[in-house]
Amino acid sequence: MEKKTTTKRKKPKFLRTDWHKKIRLGRGVKKNQKWHGAKGRQNKLRLNRKGRMQRPKIGWGADTKNKGFVDGVEVVRVENVSELSKVEKGCGIIIAKVGAKKRAEIIAKANEMKIKILNKYKKTEKKDAIR
Question: Could you state, in order of their start, the residue ranges of all structural domains in the chain?
């Protein structure tokens, strides 16, 4: 069976215009660097001037046959234990943003059902490993 993944290619990081010039645009805070479309009248990025950053466009997306696959596994988002019963065989799960108690229940049930968890990492688990 062929492993379905998005093709590995050099895709640029789409960052906000002039993020490196001003602190409020993300020079010091990485979360503020994320892409915001250029709206200025004479903005060189909006005008597609040569030598500027790449802009997100349709061509950068994954192939339609590979969309929804991570590491060759189809992805299902799970919010509680009862939704695990709906997951088909061969699918992986991503646990939604839930509390630690519910997360532990979902992980235990998924391990019991032998379902691959694609986002096992969590800050609380890392802290427990350090202690």
Answer: 12-61, 69-130
Q: Quick one: which of 89, 87, 128 has its CA closest to 106?
A: 87
Strand, helix or coil at 15?
strand
- Measured in degrees and rounded to the nearest 5, phi and psi for residue 69 equal -110, 135
Backbone angles phi, psi at 74, to 5 degrees: -70, 140
Residue among 26, 31, 108 nearest 120 (CA):
108
Q: What is the mean pLDDT of each run of 10 residues along the chain (131 residues)?
A: 63 88 89 92 94 89 82 90 92 93 94 91 58 53
Q: Sheet harboring 91-95: ordered strands across? A: 69-70, 73-78, 91-95, 116-117
Provide the 3-class DSSP secondary structure of residue 95.
Answer: strand
Distance CA 106, CA 84 (A): 8
21 and 27 in contact (C-beta within 8 Å)? Answer: yes
> b/e string for 74-101 if b means 16 or more Cβ within 10 A?
ebbebeeeeebeebeeeebbebeeeeee
